[in-house]
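Researcher: I'd like a candidate sequence for this fold, 144 residues long. If you have to choose between options at a position, lean toward the conservative one.
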């Protein structure tokens, strides 16, 4: 606790006020975090957004709310999004992510839902993931 009565919590090497929330806007996620990750400059914030293989974790066990992940592809060049207990299914259309002034498209996003079980008889769950990518590059190499 600081002299002024403010309590702090440690996140990696950073001290933050208790109750601090990391809630970047979509444009901030794309322009700062994802773009810097693609440029190899993620060391600046690696203690804030970690990189994991999302398919190695069930949704309830994911270590963070924001993360970087890449996917494996099968022999048919399809993205594999399966975990031990289920799979992530793309739902709906791809959506454009625009700058705050709505003038430029800076990325696209997909919404995925987690299905418990296998493809033939999956059970719907409440888990949802927003996957962001920059379409000028390979969309499977830069998800967030």
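Model: Candidate sequence:
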């Amino acid at each position: 606790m600081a002299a002024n009565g403010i309590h702090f919590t440690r996140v990696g090497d950073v001290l933050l006020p208790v109750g601090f929330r990391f809630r970047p806007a979509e444009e901030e996620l794309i322009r700062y975090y994802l773009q810097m990750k693609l440029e190899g400059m993620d060391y600046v914030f690696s203690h804030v957004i970690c990189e994991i293989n999302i398919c190695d974790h069930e949704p309830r066990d994911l270590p963070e709310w924001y993360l970087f992940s890449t996917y494996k592809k099968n022999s048919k060049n399809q993205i594999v999004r399966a975990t031990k207990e289920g799979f992530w299914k793309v739902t709906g259309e791809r959506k454009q992510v625009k700058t705050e002034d709505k003038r430029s498209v800076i990325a696209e996003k997909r919404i995925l839902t987690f299905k418990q079980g296998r493809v033939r008889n999956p059970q719907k769950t409440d888990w949802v993931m927003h996957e962001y990518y920059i379409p000028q590059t390979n969309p499977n190499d830069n998800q967030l």
